[in-house]
Write a structure and sequence with these properties.
Family: Belongs to the UPP synthase family. Z-FPP synthase subfamily.
Function: Catalyzes the condensation of isopentenyl diphosphate (IPP) with allylic pyrophosphates generating different type of terpenoids.
Subunit structure: Homodimer.
Helix content: 40-55%
Order of helices and strands: HEHHEHEHEHHHEEH
Radius of gyration: 19 Å
CATH class of one domain: Alpha Beta
Shape: globular
Strand content: 5-15%
EC number: 2.5.1.-
Low-confidence stretches: none
Number of helices: 9
CATH architecture of one domain: 3-Layer(aba) Sandwich
Strand order of the largest sheet: 3-4-2-1-5-6
CATH superfamily of one domain: Decaprenyl diphosphate synthase-like
Largest sheet: 6 strands, parallel
Protein name: Isoprenyl transferase
Length: 253
């Protein structure tokens, strides 16, 4: 429901004030979905839809800072997306390169690319690594830019990293099978050392994760928003946080 404009700001402020700080997530994952459908419904090109979606990212990061979130993971491009029409994919990669450069230039957030970077074009890899290098000393919100990301790929990469780590120790496969544990995967994930996301938000009305943070989201709360990503508002974000704060988190117990 969209409130009349004179009441919207008041409602938003009251909603923000009602959030209990001690019950808000440290890490939020966001699936930025609906750019193409927004473009079709608006009668504009997919490229314009992706650009509008990219313009929304800085707003989300500001909203996250305001409520004390420490880590935001943005799913910007999946491994499946790499199979898209080459022209559209080229436009999308250009938008991603531009937006990570803009975020880095702000010197406000620490950017970390997460994903199978070897699957990306060299120009995109270079843009992501440059953003990471430019913000490595920034003391602020940690932003994981999930580009060329797939949950199955991440787990496979974690297992490969574990095997490579022990390759020089003389351990046999039988030895490794005996000691292998879930913690060994956690130690080699793209997000190692970070808290797992307590809340995962997906826009556009789709009610599935599609492989996003498969390992890390085992105990996450999920919030599905009807708005397409370019239309996602601060009030939608605050409603997601309110929903999270009202849930009883059992964490498997």
């Amino acid at each position: 429901m969209r409130l009349p404009h004179p009441l919207y700001g008041l409602y938003e402020r009251r909603l923000a004030a009602s959030l209990p700080p001690e019950q808000l997530p440290r890490h939020i994952g966001v699936i930025l979905d609906g750019n193409r459908r927004w473009a079709r419904s608006s009668g504009v090109s997919s490229a314009h839809g992706h650009r509008r979606g990219a313009d929304k990212i800085a707003e989300l990061l500001e909203w996250s800072e305001d409520v004390g979130v420490e880590v935001v993971t943005l799913w910007m491009l999946s491994t499946d997306n790499l199979e898209r029409d080459k022209v559209e994919l080229g436009h999308l990669l250009t938008v991603i390169e531009d937006v990570v450069g803009e975020l880095a230039q702000a010197q406000r957030w620490r950017i970390q690319p997460v994903g199978a970077l070897e699957m990306l074009p060299e120009r995109t890899r270079d843009a992501l690594r440059a953003a990471q290098a430019a913000t490595v000393d920034v003391q602020g919100l940690h932003v994981n830019a999930a580009v060329g990301y797939g949950g199955r790929h991440e787990i496979a990469d974690a297992v490969r990293a574990f095997l490579r780590h022990h390759a020089g120790t003389g351990s046999s496969l039988d030895d490794l099978a005996e000691i292998f544990d879930v913690e060994h995967i956690a130690e080699h994930l793209y997000t190692k050392g970070q808290p797992d996301p307590e809340l995962v938000i997906r826009t556009s009305g789709e009610q599935r994760l599609g492989g996003f943070l498969m390992w890390q989201s085992a105990q996450s709360e999920f919030y599905f928003c009807e708005a397409y990503w370019p239309d996602f508002r601060r009030v939608d974000f605050l409603r997601a946080l309110r929903s999270y704060a009202q849930r009883e988190r059992r964490l498997g117990r």
